[in-house]
Amino acid sequence: MNFEHFSVPRIVFGKGRFQETGTVAATFGRKALIVTHDSASALPLTDRLAALLRSAGVTAEVHRVAGEPEVKDVDAGIATAQASNAEVLIGLGGGSAIDAAKAMAGVLANGGSALDYMEVIGQGKKITVPAVPWIAVPVTAGTGAEVTRNAVIGFKEKHFKASLRSELLMARVALIDPELHIKVRPEVTARCGMDALTQCLEAFVSQKAQPLSDQAALDGLHRAARSLRRAYQKGDDVEARGEMALAALCGGIALTNAGLGAVHGFAAPLGAQIPVPHGTVCAALLPHVMETNVKALREAGTATAALDRYAEIGRVLSGQPKLDRDEAMEAGVAAAKALVRDLQIPALGSFGLKNEDVPAIVERARKASSMRYNPVDLDEETLTYILRAAI
Predict the structure, then answer these.
(1) 142-152 burial, b for 16+ CB within 10 Å, e for fewer?
(2) Which CATH number applies to 10-181: 3.30.390.10, 3.40.50.620, 3.40.50.2300, 3.40.50.1970?
(3) What's the predicted TM-score (pTM) here?
(4) What confidence score (pLDDT) does residue 347 get?
């Protein structure tokens, strides 16, 4: 058995740990750039962080990103960091803010534009210099971007999202405080939580799965299965918030080392084509991808190990650990459909996706890096069926 395992050097996790951000940042320098969301809801937490930095002797500038980051946002943030002589960057917010900070830190150290280093649509240049020190402080439990080695960046001109990817991009510190998640709205909790669950699930059945990623993926899947509804229904349940924060963390660790699958293969071109949150895409597609993968694996007749993994997923999601393999796989698909329904996840058609958009999205999805790790190869016809089913 051969595998590699990448991880963030330091993870700080727990209720109230946000208070330590200033002292953590001070270990890297005295000038910081806070990268956060351009929204009214982000202001109070940004102000708190600025105060914590001041108390630790660190001055800070703020760069705000509107929505999911584009190449222009990253390049603008790099210019701000250079002008302020920032020694440490802090990504504060959801996956979008954290990915923006990650990309800025990497490109700041390596030079040029974000587009130079992007897969598929950019030049795909190698990151050769370690990123400028940066700290990830997530306020949602979803992408696990705080511990991943890729940053997803959009490029509207080509209707696509792609990654900058390197272990040299990883945060120096991931600081995760479940208390920061309490005020997250239910619909955001739902879609972010489904992203975390999907990442754990896809990493577990990935063709690149390995023992350490399996441990993280299964642990995260268990936590999301038992806690996502609670976090959605009662946002001030700190225990449920902590469980989901750990699920997202596990998903980030798992995907960094095992890759993902067809759900995330679709996510990038869909997110660039229509104004839909990433987690909503994951939730809308997951049951259909699970069902289709199981059917294709059964038809292949040689994929016993992958089917065993889908059976284990079914037992976890359904909460029925004694089901036999076939029953468990059916129960897993049913449980995923029930969760999407209970969380009131809208279909993709409500965001403007039309049947005539499907062929172009399928073509772009087949080129996505995540698609190569799906447990079974899915042809154009099958991918078309999946996407139409989610409309």
Answers:
(1) bbbbbbbbbbb
(2) 3.40.50.1970
(3) 0.95
(4) 96
